[in-house]
Design a protein that fits this description.
Strand content: under 5%
Shape: globular
Structural class: mainly alpha
Distance between the termini: 18 Å
Number of strands: 0
Order of helices and strands: HHHHHHHHHHHHHHHH
Helix content: over 70%
Length: about 375
């Protein structure tokens, strides 16, 4: 089956990627806690769930009936293999850092980070494990989801998602090393913390014409809701009801959904998706994986050189340098035989393949 690509996805994917890059750049530049900056970082966390939403949205839209025969082979080859290889590479970097700072054995440190990365998703590549769970849910439940009532499925998924996140947001961790680790990191991995995004993406992709019509029918709410819901997120953070900066907060489910709708709505009104966003979208997987490495290297170099740079300028330097270096690295790796196994393939752009007609009446949108 020919892939049905949707131009607006390029905008959504690039914005979510850049939001994560800016989030991490701010965290590096403002080592000293800044309340204003932290408020910005809270809102920027919508990027990761949006990135994950896109995976199921495209899947549901492209393969409405069944997955192609080569689906799993391609996903293992181009998604899971980069997860394993980059996770291993990142474990090596962390092992070197820990060995130099604490004097522990390099091999021992590597072993510790290696199994935590690959088995527990204890690094920024954890989103790949979530995406693979979406693949499995789609594979096993697609026929059932086509029969079940969307409102019931989405409502149930929402309640499960909120109960799951609410438990880890408001219940104190079990007083043990394992308990603290689960509360701080591991609860991110199971699909229960993302299942609402899966159901939302599935039905938005499956009933695409209805999705677009609803965006236009309720356009005023689509535009206003991110400001209202974003303000609520900031209030909950500022009052320390939810004092963490994370996309795994109960309130972020609402805000992320509103941002997904807003970005998609804006994109449908564009006569053409700007080439810059298409370009970023093409390299987004590599950017997402590689940029923390360059941020960490720059952070160490600046510290060693004792450079005094204003945090705002430093944020810009971190952001643009890590962005360009990640793109360059992804480009080079894709030119080297089997290099794409490390950083993923460069995805196609608007002019590389035909993009299917959405057959949505009375809506002016651009298809490549």
């Amino acid at each position: 089956m020919q892939k049905k690509l949707i131009n607006e996805i390029f905008l959504m994917r690039s914005i979510s990627c850049l939001s994560i890059l800016l989030l991490h750049s701010l965290a590096r530049a403002y080592a000293d806690e800044s309340n204003t900056v932290n408020l910005i970082r809270v809102l920027l966390t919508f990027g990761t769930p949006t990135f994950i939403f896109i995976s199921e949205f495209i899947l549901s839209r492209s393969y409405p009936n069944e997955l192609p025969s080569n689906f799993w082979a391609k996903r293992l080859k181009y998604v899971m293999v980069p997860y394993v290889l980059f996770g291993t590479f990142f474990a090596v970097l962390k092992a070197f850092e820990q060995s130099l700072s604490t004097g522990t054995s390099l091999l021992s440190s590597f072993g510790q980070f290696f199994w935590r990365h690959l088995l527990l998703g204890d690094f920024h590549g954890y989103f790949i494990l979530v995406i693979f769970q979406f693949y499995l849910l789609h594979y096993f439940f697609n026929k059932h989801l086509q029969k079940w009532k969307p409102s019931v499925v989405m409502g149930s998924a929402f309640l499960i998602n909120m109960a799951y996140l609410g438990f880890f947001n408001f219940v104190k961790p079990y007083p043990s090393e394992i308990g603290v680790y689960i509360w701080e990191k591991f609860y991110w991995i199971p699909f229960l913390g993302w299942v609402y995004y899966f159901s939302l993406a599935y039905y938005c992709g499956k009933h695409f014409s209805l999705f677009i019509n609803l965006l236009n029918k309720y356009s005023k709410w689509v535009i206003v809701s991110p400001f209202i819901l974003g303000s609520i997120c900031l209030f909950l953070y500022g009052t320390k009801v939810l004092p963490i900066i994370s996309s795994k907060r109960v309130d972020m489910v609402f805000f992320t959904t509103s941002m997904i709708f807003l970005i998609y709505y804006i994109a449908t009104k564009m006569p053409k998706v700007p080439k810059f966003f298409v370009w970023i979208s093409q390299y987004s997987f590599g950017i997402y994986l590689i940029h923390p490495v360059f941020l960490a290297v720059m952070y160490v170099v600046f510290k060693r050189l004792s450079l005094e740079i204003h945090p705002s300028l430093l944020t810009g330097l971190y952001f643009f340098a890590s962005l360009l270096l990640s793109i360059a690295s992804t480009f080079i790796l894709n030119k080297i035989p089997f290099g794409y196994y490390f950083a993923g393939r460069i995805s196609i752009g608007m002019n590389d393949k035909k993009i299917s007609d959405r057959a949505v009446p009375n809506i002016k949108t651009k298809h490549g």
